């Protein structure tokens, strides 16, 4: 839809804070009443942009021959690529979530909880003998550490370099005892 595409483009060009409904309407070649018929705010438009398919890759625990640690690292690398490719939209979504309780709930429901559920499943697999015991880290703690790493990456200025997100994730996976799979 033109409105969603306009939002994506404007956030990438100007940053979320500078985007206005007027600007979205102009870019999408629609009237403001058309926008307000479908969305009540620019936050709602942004949420739909990000949550209607443009979401972080969801981790999936598998029984692949390469092992769950490899699957987790491949997933996290995909997350980092997604973050880098969609940083302006994701920064806008996080900023909007601080201001809007409904947006915060959508972020939790569509992004945070699916990631946490899959990470809890990976950690649960350790209790069943894969890699040995979970390294003393609960699935919820792992999810919060991963979310913190993602937010830190989003908060860094573009092109600032020296990002250790992947290394942080590998350390977490090693702590879980997945080095040997």
TrEMBL record:
Keywords tagged on the record: DNA-binding, Transcription, Transcription regulation
Name of the protein in its database record: HTH tetR-type domain-containing protein
DNA-binding region(s) in UniProt: 20-39
GO terms assigned for molecular function: DNA-binding transcription factor activity; transcription cis-regulatory region binding
Pfam families, alphabetized: TetR_N
Source organism per UniProt: Subtercola boreus
Domain of life: Bacteria
Domain HTH tetR-type: 1-57
């Amino acid at each position: 839809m033109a409105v969603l595409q306009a939002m994506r483009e404007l956030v990438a060009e100007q940053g979320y804070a500078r985007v206005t409904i007027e600007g979205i309407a102009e870019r999408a070649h629609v009237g403001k009443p058309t926008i307000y018929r479908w969305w009540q705010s620019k936050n709602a438009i942004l949420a739909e942009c990000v949550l209607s398919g443009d979401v972080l890759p969801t981790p999936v625990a598998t029984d692949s021959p390469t092992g769950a640690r490899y699957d987790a690292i491949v997933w996290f690398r995909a997350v980092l690529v997604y973050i880098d490719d969609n940083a302006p939209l994701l920064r806008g979504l996080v900023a909007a979530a601080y201001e809007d309780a409904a947006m915060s709930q959508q972020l939790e429901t569509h992004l945070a909880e699916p990631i946490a559920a899959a990470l809890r499943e990976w950690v649960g697999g350790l209790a069943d003998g894969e890699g040995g015991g979970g390294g003393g880290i609960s699935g919820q703690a792992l999810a919060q550490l991963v979310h913190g790493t993602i937010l830190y990456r989003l908060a860094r200025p573009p092109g600032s370099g020296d990002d250790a997100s992947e290394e942080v994730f590998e350390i977490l996976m090693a702590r879980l005892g997945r080095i040997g799979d």
